[in-house]
Structure to design on (359 residues):
């Protein structure tokens, strides 16, 4: 997919359109570049992408245990869409966005280990779609050298998700072949590279030839175009009729009940999202019928609730990134004020890899 570029500011456009001066004027002093006035993209209510409104932000001072940051990059995630549409109910109006990177601008009382100017990143529930924010210091991690702000902003939620999926939900063993749906997506491209680094044979699914090609280039041994082919039959063929010990499934409605059918006896369905809609007709007896299967429905926030766990998982993620075993593919960037376009692209399956907003 062609890389989208960040839109030029209105001010820059206006400047380009301005008529040339008729007479040369004496050279004026060039004013230093101004950071744009602080603003947030507020979702006014649950609904379509038209709910976003640009609202000026009044910056306040961080309180005890808090830090003020200026965002340099903000990750866009499918969970933001679940929240915007009301699938995951939250109070409105609200500032969506759970993943970001930026620079520390002010520090509240009692905060240790951070100073003004530090590059930091985080994943929290909401509040990232803004040029600036106040955030609890114990949710921040420092961005290591060699990792860019955009990479960190794109990786905190999606990358630590892959970290816990592959370590705590089903830890693939040497010789395993596992199935990972939506392999060309934000989580999917990280997972393919991570699985390859572990030496695991991974089957990915993706919609369309271009996405399949991309997933194959990012660690998957086999990739099935599940729009064109029956992925269950393909998995059975590739595993000589056995099925896989684990399916990592974030698609939900459209991949159910196929994900269960692709499992071998005692296999686990790791259902961690529902980009195609909620699974509604699952029965516990399906697990018995499929071969004493199990299911888990995990969510990242439980895995990083403790500060020590956040640090440990972030350290492992950054180590994978710094070593080059996992490369973060920021394939789309949008201006923060164009967040509606970013949401539209993600929810209509136009994106690959990671999507980042630039304030
Ligand atoms: N539980 C957790 O802790 C956790 C954490 C992070 C993310 N997630 C979940 O992981 C999934 C991936 O997140 P992401 O932000 O990286 O998104 P993403 O994978 O980049 O985008 C979603 C992808 O899902 C596929 N898809 C299949 N049917 C779809 C449909 N009807 N509508 C839209 N997309 C559809 C599309 O890929 P194809 O075109 O190739 O089908 C699409 O590109 C999401 O479901 C998200 O909620 C869960």
């Amino acid at each position: 997919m062609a890389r989208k570029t960040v839109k030029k500011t209105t001010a820059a456009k206006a400047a380009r359109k301005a008529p040339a001066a008729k007479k040369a004027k004496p050279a004026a002093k060039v004013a230093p570049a101004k950071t744009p006035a602080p603003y947030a993209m507020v979702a006014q209510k649950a609904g379509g992408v038209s709910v976003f409104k640009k609202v000026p932000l009044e910056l306040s001072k961080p309180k005890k245990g808090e830090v003020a940051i200026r965002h340099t990059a903000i990750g866009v995630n499918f969970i933001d869409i679940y929240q915007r549409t009301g699938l995951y109910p939250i109070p409105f109006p609200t500032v969506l966005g759970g993943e970001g990177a930026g620079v520390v601008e002010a520090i509240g009382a009692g905060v240790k280990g951070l100073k003004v100017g530090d590059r930091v990143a985080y994943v929290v529930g909401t509040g990232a779609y803004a040029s600036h924010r106040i955030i609890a210091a114990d949710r921040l991690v420092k961005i290591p050298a060699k990792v860019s702000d955009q990479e960190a902003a794109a990786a905190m939620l999606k990358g630590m998700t892959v970290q816990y999926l592959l370590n705590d939900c089903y830890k693939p063993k040497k010789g395993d072949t596992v199935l990972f749906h939506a392999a060309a997506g934000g989580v999917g491209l990280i997972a393919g590279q991570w699985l390859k680094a572990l030496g695991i044979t991974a089957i990915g699914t993706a919609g369309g030839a271009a996405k399949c090609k991309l997933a194959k280039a990012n660690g998957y041994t086999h990739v099935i175009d599940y729009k064109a082919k029956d992925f269950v039959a393909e998995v059975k063929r590739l595993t000589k009729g056995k099925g896989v010990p684990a399916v990592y499934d974030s698609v939900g409605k459209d991949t159910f009940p196929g994900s269960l059918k692709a499992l071998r006896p005692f296999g686990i369905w790791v259902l961690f999202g529902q980009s195609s809609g909620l699974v509604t007709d699952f029965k516990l007896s399906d697990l018995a019928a499929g071969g004493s299967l199990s299911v888990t429905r995990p969510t990242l926030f439980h895995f990083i609730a403790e500060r020590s766990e956040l640090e440990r998982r972030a350290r492992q993620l950054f180590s994978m990134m710094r070593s080059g075993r996992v490369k973060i593919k920021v394939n789309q960037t949008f201006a923060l004020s164009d967040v509606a376009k970013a949401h539209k692209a993600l929810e209509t399956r136009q994106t690959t890899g990671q999507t980042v907003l630039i304030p």
Q: What stands out?
A: The chain has two domains: 38-157+301-358, 174-297.
